[in-house]
Every structure is written in C-alpha cells, then in structure tokens.
Amino acid sequence: MAGGWIWMGFKVPSNVSSSIILCHTKMSNTLVFFWSEFCRNDVYFKNYYDIMSCHPENFQWEHWSFENVATILAHRFPNSFIWVVKCSRMHLHKFSCYDNFVASNMFGAPEHSTDFGAFKHLHALLVNAFRLSQNILQSQKSAHGFGKDAKVSARKSELQSVPTANGCSSTEREKDCECSNNSAMNFVIPSAVGAASFTLIGFSKGCVVLNQLLYELKEAKKDKNTDAFLKNIKAIYWLDGGHSGGSNTWVTYPEVLKELAQTGIEVHSHVTPYQVFDTMRSWIGREHEKFVRILEEFGVEINDQLHFADEVPSLDNHFRVHEVF
Question: Pfam families of this UniProt entry (predicted)?
Fold first, then answer.
C-alpha cells in the first residue's frame, strides 16, 4: 500500500473551524471517519502518535493514535482516501464534542434537530479539503526537488498557528499542512466532491455525527446540492456508538430510519460488550436492538455484528473494534 499523510486545519464558509487528517492510498472511494478522542492532554493535532507515546498516561493507548487508526482503516479500505475528522473540542480532556456538526451540551451529549446544518458543514468541509489537498500536493511536489532542506522546513513549521480563513493562504499552507512521506507525490485527489463516492464511519462518540445526519435526511433531500452529495454516500458504519448523555445513543425513531431505508445506503453496525452490555448504561443495548429491528422491518439488510461477546467488557476491546469490523 502506497500512502502518506496530510494534516489540515481550516474554516469552512460557515466560519466554523475543522481539523482533519488525510491518509491516501490507491483510491476509488472516499472514506470519512469521525473519531472519538480519549486523550487527557491539551494537544489535539499534529504528530499525535509522538505526543501520546511520550505521555505518562496515554502511552498505553498509542496504538490508537490518529495515525495508527487511519492506517488500520487504510488497510481495511485499500481503495479509499481516508479522511479523519477531529472533534471541535474536548471537555475536561475526556469528552469529544462535535459542536460543528450537532448542537451539544457541555459534555458533548447531542441535541439533535432536523435542520440540515451537519450535511452542509460536511459538504463544505470536504469541498475545502479536496481543494486544499490538491494545492498542498502540488506545492509539495515542487518542494520535493529541493531535497531534505524543504522537508525539514515543513517539519519545523508544524508548531505554527492554525489558519484563520477559508482554506489556507500559501504561507499558512506551509505552516499547517504537511505530507509525511514522498508517496504523497504519486496520487491525484478528485477535483470535486461530486466526483467521489463516500463511506461514512463513526466510532464511539463520533457516531453522534452519523445520527445527526439521519435526523437531517428528509430536509437534505429537498436541497439540490445536498441531495446530490447524499446520493454519493454508499455505506455508513456505526462502530460501538456511545456518548455522555443518558439516551439517544442510537436513532430509534421509525420516521427517521424510514428515510435512511429509502436511500439504499448500506448500513453496518459493529458493537462490543463495552457499550451494549454496560449495566450502568442499559439504554445503549436496548436502543441498539431497536435501531437494528426497525431498519430490518423497513427491508434494510443491515450488517449487524457483536464482537468479543465472550470476553469481559473492556476499553481495549472497545478500541479493537477498528481491527475486526
């Protein structure tokens, strides 16, 4: 697998900041992954593995760093771009909050609505990311001819500030975006979001974004641009969904799930005992069962799997779902 990394931080037209990482391979599909962070320090981007491996607590979880999880996904989906979307904030360095996609309380528990702001933000995020990554790769390709000095210069620029406008200026691009190896010079990103097919994946708290997209489906279909984007979504994966709230971990409203069933999008659900067998959060298991049952009643052939069923619920197995789904 030929691949590399691009880190990006920017604002979309709605003036909401987002940070993403792109892992690229030989691709025919675009995978967008909403990751749940679990670190207990203040650093949320750039060289995440290096930071975690040196941290007195987080080193034990370095296998699940940004880079490593993206690499796992790249092996699982070898013909896809891998876009990892970071949460907009962390509360108490523990609770991932995707405020840029769904209204949330202090701890990141979602307050879902039918307004299709999440679809608009995701579409704008990808449009900017596609455009920006094209520019980065062209810049890196030119810089590659200058040898190691150019690469060292790019490396040093990591510690600079994040961009404050839509996309990045040429100076900001040098500061905030980096290709991690020379294989970045050998691939081409689609020129437009409309030219790509998409797979959406949410893990743990990242599933709140997928849920919000479901609530917006009915309204999103009425918008020409959003509907065109929606029709390019081929599959959605829920990986051991959970959040800090006391309900609505899984979507259980028939009218909402009917909209999903009508799209023809593939639906995948992969859970572990860590979430669905938790006696202190018993609603998660009940909601998951209802989610699956309602979709099946609407004729969806959902791929629903329980992993590590015979093992004691553990945080490690919660993360290991990345390796077995």
Answer: C2orf69 (PF10561)
